[in-house]
Amino acid sequence: MMEDFYNTVHKPVMLQEVVDAMRVPFDAAARPAVLIDCTLGGGGHADAFLKALPGHRVVAIDRDEAAIKAAELRFAGEIKAGRLTLVHGGFGGIAELAVGPVLGIFADLGFSSDQMDDPGRGLSFNSEAFPDMRLDRSRGQTCFDLLQTTSEAGLEKIFREYGEERYSRRIAANIMQAKREKRLPKTSKGLAELIAFSSPAAGRRGHGRLHPATRAFQALRIAVNNELAELDKLLEDGMMLLEGGGRMGVISFHSLEDRRVKTAFRKFQPLFKKPRLPGERELGDNPRSRSAKLRVAVKPPESAP
Ligand SMILES: C[S@@+](CC[C@H](N)C(=O)[O-])C[C@H]1O[C@@H](n2cnc3c(N)ncnc32)[C@H](O)[C@@H]1O
What is the chain's mean pLDDT, rounded? Predict the structure, then answer.
């Protein structure tokens, strides 16, 4: 199991663009500084930062204990040399890190391919596993518990606001009925089928390549992991933590995240007006990168940290 994670299948997105953008303040720094990788995952970006920033330190955070354990093995040398520190927790707690002068903060939001492909997490529509969906399985409510304890109005709001789902009312009503009849699915596959059943016949086949439960699953994942509140906290507290001249880079994967990043970065100096997207070659190599958007902001040099 551990070895599976060590041999991560996750392909880091827009790796070269990210490193080129994030390294600039470090190359100009007169003293050793810190880059915080808020989303360690399979360690692809963290590895590239360690290689591109000799003389500086990387602090890598992840909510997923399995990602931290795998990185302890993979980066044992860098950890021993004091170049890498791993932190198990949510990046919303970034303000509590006392790590020295921070010149870079990077986040590659969402789930890694290792997590998506792990049948035990219940993230995929075909998974026979319990619908858990938590990034940090040591705490918090599972998706199943959330469905059990949320009212119809609450469920509808989750699907509408976090999934921008057209059939949020019907999905919520069908889940409530399943709860009343004590047949709420105990597998993600069953849950995906119940959600798909709530869409009209055309929708049940999905929009193009999308499974009809895609938006609802996105909504549940966001709700279970409190993802948007975590992101808001990262954007606000991260910018406070950053030294003047430092950079924050975020890769987002859906419009709810990107809108927040875009708005927050307007208060600073966005490095490029439009977000950077993966090129044709990357899209061919890694179809999961297709909705990625990279934005980078620079904190004005005169700002207090
Ligand atoms: C897309 S993956 C990152 C992949 C990584 N950049 C790489 O190159 O392998 C996102 C990771 O962020 C973690 N994550 C998501 N939200 C988080 C949060 N609020 N706090 C800490 N980690 C989080 C997930 O557990 C996952 O491992």
Answer: 91
Report the pLDDT averaged over residues 211-219: 92
Residue 107, class by beta-carbon neighbours within 10 Å (0-12 exposed, 13-18 middle, 19+ buried)?
Answer: buried
Q: Cβ(67) to ligand 1 under 6 A? A: yes
C-alpha 51 to ligand 1 mean position (Å): 20
Question: What residues does each domain of the chain span?
Answer: 2-114+227-298, 119-225
C-beta 45 within 6 A of ligand 1:
yes
Segment 62-86 shows an average pLDDT of 96
47 lines ligand 1 (CB under 6 A): no
- 9 pLDDT higher than 90: no
Task: Please state, for a pLDDT cut of 70, what percent of the chain lies above it.
Answer: 94
Q: What is the pTM of this model?
A: 0.92
What topology does CATH give the domain 119-225?
A: DNA polymerase; domain 1 (1.10.150)
Interval 163-208: pLDDT, tens: 999 999 999 999 999 999 999 999 999 999 999 988 876 555 555 5
Ligand 1 center from residue 251 Cα (angstroms):
11
Of the candidates 158, 288, 153, 157, the one whose C-alpha atom is nearest the C-alpha of residue 224 is: 158
| Residue 279: CA count within 13 A, CB half-sphere | 5
- Cβ neighbours around 97 below 10 Å, total: 18
For residues 64 and 11, give the distance between their C-alpha atoms in angstroms, rounded to a whole number: 17
- CATH (residue range 2-114+227-298): 3.40.50.150
Ligand 1 near 61 CB (within 6 A): yes
**How much distance in Å is there from the Cα of 112 to the middle of ligand 1?**
6
Beta carbons of 38 and 234 less than 8 angstroms apart: yes
CA nearest ligand 1 atom 18, residue: 90
User: Rounded mean pLDDT of 223-250?
Assistant: 97
Residue nearest to atom 9 of ligand 1 (CA): 42
Span from the CA of 239 to the centroid of ligand 1 (angstroms): 19
